Amino acid sequence: CPASYCLPFPPPKVQATHPDCSIILYFQELEAACLEVIRSENQTPAHPRQQGCPTEWDGVSCWPAVPVGQSRAVACPDILHVFKKSKALIQRNCTELGWSLPSLPYYDACELEAIGSNNDTEAKASYFVTMKVLYTCGYSTSLAALFLAIGIFSCFRKLHCTRNSIHIHFFTSFILRGAAVFIKDAVLFSDESTDHCLMSTVNCKAAITFFQYSVLANFYWLLVEGLYLQTLLLLTFTSDKRYIWWYILIGWGVPMLTVCVWVVARLQYDNHGCWDDYTSLYWWVIKAPILLAIFVNFLIFLNVTRMLAQKIWSPDISKSYKQQYMRLTKSTLLLIPLFGVHYVVFALCPEHVGVDARLYIELVLGSYQGFLVALLYCFLNGEVQAEIRRNWGKWQSSMESNVFNLVTQDFTA
């Protein structure tokens, strides 16, 4: 567009995902609508007496077609926190030679909101770098702990049971979530020269799809852990092996179905950008099942707490059983963050509300959640500790026996 009336700055290149890219999307949508009008006009030949200035996109605004001698006026772009509300209008006349230059250039008519200083920009950049270092350390620690926990449950045969199988699936969902974060960062932010707002590659969309699936699976295996705990309390004498395939279907199947629906919807109706814009209406295809899992888990948590309280205070239960239920109560209280109760605080808030707190909880604290899960379910598990001590004792005895045999053989030789 002509330099005399274009904005004196390029579209901002941000180092983050949407909604920070909403400015570029705003102009993309305006441009697409304007180009559609231009395409329609080109397909419909105009009458000789109706010759004038055709519809034109100047990079900022769409100027509708008008006959020669008439004029059009447009207002400044309506973008919150970018332009001040200005009553000034930019006017152009339609002459025999075409559209005239605007009466006021955009940079004169449209006053920008006060932009932070370089110090503020550097502080924000430093803040996000610090956040990335923290959650990278968190996810790395969690991945190491989760792999070790899976190895422990898999190696010792006495630990093979439905409860620990569910724990392994739960650990795997945390591993996928951590890996998805690293993959997403590598695809979206490995090249600083890339405009992330306009990125729309297959690799980028695949990374976001895998990330959404891992997040959904993580929440639904969280739900399975809650369902399993409630089942143990309700159906004490029922074999839990019969439910394992239902748990697998809920934990892996429901997220897969949800993500497939989301992918089809994005491909058909909203296939722009990298699919990481949380302002999109189709984000609710992902968000609604997550909210459902959170609130169902919260209800399960309340119900489990109620049942444990009834059993503890019941006069018909022996002292040993009460001590067992007390241990369950303590474990349940420790599992509050695992049930996702703290996510309820942000569940129904708009995405732009409490961004700093949301980032800290979901990225920094959330990155250590896998480590906490491995700690509670495996490393602090009395059954696991006993099995490790037993096998360690057997290994020591075996080593002492081998050493004794070698010494005996040397002596007799």
UniProtKB/TrEMBL annotation:
Entry keyword RNA-binding: no
One MF annotation (Gene Ontology) recorded for this entry: peptide hormone binding
GO annotation, cellular component aspect: plasma membrane
Keyword annotations: Cell membrane, Disulfide bond, G-protein coupled receptor, Glycoprotein, Membrane, Receptor, Signal, Transducer, Transmembrane, Transmembrane helix
UniProt cross-references to SUPFAM superfamilies, sorted A to Z: Family A G protein-coupled receptor-like, Hormone receptor domain
Annotated ranges, domain G-protein coupled receptors family 2 profile: 33-114, 131-381
PANTHER family: GROWTH HORMONE RELEASING HORMONE RECEPTOR 2 PRECURSOR (PTHR45620:SF16), PDF RECEPTOR-LIKE PROTEIN-RELATED (PTHR45620)
Membrane topology: Multi-pass membrane protein
Annotated TM spans: 133-156, 168-189, 219-237, 244-269, 281-304, 325-348, 360-380
Pfam families: 7tm_2, HRM
Listed GO biological process terms: adenylate cyclase-modulating G protein-coupled receptor signaling pathway; cell surface receptor signaling pathway; positive regulation of multicellular organismal process; regulation of growth
InterPro entries recorded: GPCR_2, GPCR_2-like_7TM, GPCR_2_extracell_dom_sf, GPCR_2_extracellular_dom, GPCR_2_secretin-like, GPCR_2_secretin-like_CS
Compartments where located: Cell membrane
Main location: membrane
Protein name according to UniProt: Growth hormone-releasing hormone receptor
Gene3D superfamilies for the chain: GPCR, family 2, extracellular hormone receptor domain (4.10.1240.10), Rhodopsin 7-helix transmembrane proteins (1.20.1070.10)
Function: Receptor for GRF, coupled to G proteins which activate adenylyl cyclase. Stimulates somatotroph cell growth, growth hormone gene transcription and growth hormone secretion.
Superkingdom of this protein's organism: Eukaryota
Entry's family note: Belongs to the G-protein coupled receptor 2 family.
